[in-house]
Write a structure and sequence with these properties.
Layout (H helix, E strand, L loop, with lengths): L5 H5 L7 H15 L10 H15 L2 H10 L16 H15 L15 E7 L1 H6 L1 E12 L15 E2 L8 E6 L2 E6 L8 E2 L12 E12 L8 E4 L15 E7 L6 E3 L2 E9 H6 L1 E7 L2 E7 L8 E4 L15 E8 L6 H15 L2 H4 L1 H16 L1
């Protein structure tokens, strides 16, 4: 029987963060653990299925292989990838440490670095056609003076005397024994007697780094681009976190975006609306001509197929909708006013024919007052 998709098993999207994947796995692990479901013969199968999905998706390299090749990319028998034995034990051990106070034994002092988020503003044109830009972000890097140990040059961190290097201390409260993070070493298991001056014993220093970010064509407001391993460095040799670049679109002078469609307003003269004509309208890849039929009303939309934005997830293009706005003439000369009065007088002779919307509205108004 074909294997289910790992993302489907955990109930997360394919762009889910590591924290979202971990949270989803914890929920399923607690729900289907065989010890909690002694009368359910299917619980162990669900538990193992969730375990396998988490082991793959929690490992950046294996997740990348799975995203590209599917199950074949992480099947040891296929020759394309392999599993890591430590993923489940570390993650599931962490779950029981948090829930039951670490009763299953010691815990690792290696911590993954924090994920970072960077808000990036781009123009509508950059979003439509894609671009590559450089960003400068603050991050915590390994201290070069102590190589991440936190100890002054020539010295080494010592085993924490409070927890004896375990990173945990056990407190007795009546009949209960509670295990918690060591307050002296904060869970690292090490104690720095003579701290490094540049990093003040932290082993990491705040720096800035410049990264190149490739923006794919079609990205929209709120989309995220994940740069794997570009977050903060881990503690005690742990893996780095990820950097999430959050896309924000700058307001455009002409267009408003609605998913993959673009909208714009085009003012036209009173005479063009009445007699018809041809106007030039802008698009993202040059000007286009739109024929205005006679007797066009204000607010009418003209659709230009394929002149919107290409979807980031397919090759389909959106449309451009041009909304006509009839502009009332201003700063009229006396002769122009005279001509308009003549037009108004001639129109009044058969207003129902020349102004049908106005006549229909007035009829509804009369019916309304008659009813009241």
């Amino acid at each position: 029987m074909a294997k289910r998709d790992f993302y489907e098993i955990l109930g997360v999207n394919r762009d889910a963060s590591d924290e979202e994947i971990k949270k989803a796995y914890r929920k399923l692990a607690m729900k289907h653990h065989p010890d909690r479901n002694p009368d359910n013969p299917n619980a162990e199968g669900h538990f193992k299925e969730a375990k396998e999905a988490y082991e793959i998706l929690a490992d950046p390299q294996q997740r990348a292989a799975y995203d590209q090749y599917g199950h074949a990319g992480v099947d040891p028998q296929s020759g394309m990838g392999g599993g890591g034995a430590g993923g489940f034990s570390d993650a599931f051990g962490g779950i029981f440490d948090e829930i039951f106070g670490g009763a299953r034994g010691g815990r690792s002092n290696i911590y993954r670095g924090a994920d970072l988020r960077y808000n990036l503003e781009i123009t509508l044109e950059q979003a439509a056609f894609g671009t590559e830009t450089k960003i400068r972000i603050p991050t915590m890097e390994v201290c070069e003076a102590c190589h991440g140990s936190g100890a002054k040059a020539g010295t080494q961190p010592k085993t924490c005397p409070t927890c004896q290097g375990s990173g945990q201390v056990r407190l007795q409260q009546g009949f209960f024994s509670i295990q918690q993070t060591c307050p002296k070493c904060h869970g690292t298991g090490r104690f720095v007697a003579d701290p490094c001056a540049p990093c003040h014993g932290a082993g990491r220093v705040k720096q800035h780094k410049t990264l190149a970010v490739k923006i794919p064509a079609g990205v929209d407001e709120g989309d995220r681009i994940r740069l794997s391993g570009e977050g903060e460095h881990g503690v005690n040799g742990g893996p780095s976190g990820d950097l999430y670049v959050q896309i924000h679109l700058k307001a455009h002078a002409v267009f408003q975006r609605e998913q993959n469609d673009l909208h714009c307003e085009m003012p036209i003269s009173f005479t063009t609306a009445a007699l018809g004509g041809e106007i030039d309208i802008p698009t993202l890849d040059g000007a286009a001509k739109v024929r205005i039929p006679p007797e066009t009303q204000s607010g009418k939309a003209f659709r230009l197929r394929g002149k919107g934005i290409k979807s980031v997830r397919s090759h389909a293009h959106g449309d451009l909708l041009c909304h006509v706005v009839v502009e009332t003439p201003v700063h009229l000369t006396e002769r122009q006013k005279e001509l308009l009065r003549e037009l108004e007088e001639s129109s009044q002779e058969n207003s129902g024919r020349h102004n049908p919307r106005a006549k229909s509205w007035m009829d509804r108004v009369r019916d309304f007052f008659a009813a009241t």
